[in-house]
Amino acid sequence: MAVSTPRREVDEVQRALRRPAGRGRRERTFQLSLMVATAVAVIVLAILLIDILIDGLPSLTLTRFTNYASRFPEEFGFRSGITGTLSLMVVTALLSFPIGVGAATYLEEFAPRNWFTRFVEANVSNLAGVPSVVYGLLGAGVFVYFFSLGRSLVVGAITLSLLILPVIIVASRESLRAVPQALREAGLGLGATRLQTISRQILPQALPGILTGTILALSRAIGETAPILVVGALFSRRSDNVPWDIDDAFSALPIQIYNLVSRPQAEFQEMVAPAGIIILLVLLLLMNSIAIYLRNRYSRSS
Half-sphere exposure of 100 toward its Cβ, with a 13 Å CA cutoff? Predict the structure, then answer.
């Protein structure tokens, strides 16, 4: 069915092109509504950040990084949460990155264009919008109870990997699609196989976008509470003199913050929990900074 578009005379189009932006009533109304929406988002975010900084900065001392959890607010530390969160992110990245990039490469470069491929693509896109608690229930039911892996670090990492895999696949596919088709044709024309062309030409060109999408997905995973809460990240480790093992019980910063705001003592809610939120935000900003650095570095080299 054809879609009709409104026709305008040439003079009217030329007047519209010459007219300064924001001169018409509709344009001014539209710009004003966009400014209001942007201002509301920025103001709400600023209020939240300022409130957290006012509450958390006075109690953010070095002991918050070096001490373990305690029943005394002034002695409470996030050491087990920080080490647990970093260990969780490392294992999650090792699991999700090769699987996500491999799936995206197959779907974009090798898969035939038929109904099954379109079905898989549609489901991958839909999985990106599934609530995170559903992945937690899936991880608890399949890995904790069916496979009897226990409430361990590897189960938390697998659950978070399932959560961010659709995001990595979609971001990697968009990065691969952005590589010019002429590069593929040039590689095949020079006698390289399809695998050689993709591994040596296409993937290096798409690597900045793939890395950026992966680290941004990990940035989402670092703040997720529901999935790891369901799979059992409640254990507060008292000693980490040896490296974490994948079958260890684990803790994480979001779980500790959730536990702190649930306590009846006001000191934990008003002093310690905001300090934990600041530490989590710092880790999140560090990961985003790494994403920006890698994107700029590989963009220049490619």
Answer: 34
pLDDT single digits (tens) 7-33 = 566 666 666 666 655 567 788 888 899
Instruction: Look up residue 188 and give its two tokens.
Output: 């095949």
Integer CA distances (angstroms), 206 to 99, 108, 125, 172, 210, in order = 16, 12, 20, 8, 6
Tokens of 208: 């900045």
CB of 71 within 8 A of CB of 139?
A: no
Q: Where are the alpha helices (DSSP H) in 57-78?
A: 63-66
Q: Are 87 and 250 in contact (CB under 8 A)?
A: yes
Tens-digit pLDDT profile for residues 145-192: 888 887 888 888 899 899 999 999 999 999 999 888 898 888 888 888
246, 248, 271: which is closest to 261 by C-alpha?
271
Q: Angle at Cα 244 formed by Cα 144 and Cα 70, nearest 5°?
A: 90
Whole-angstrom CA distances from 15 to 5, 6, 24 are 19, 16, 12
- Sign (positive or negative) of CA dihedral 208, 210, 215, 219: positive
The number of C-alpha atoms within 13 Å of 139 and in the hemisphere containing its C-beta is 27
What residues contact residue 99 under an 8 Å CB cut-off, 6+ apart? 161, 165
How far apart are alpha carbons 157 and 231 in whole angstroms?
A: 10
Q: How many helices (H) and strands (E) does the chain have?
A: 14, 0
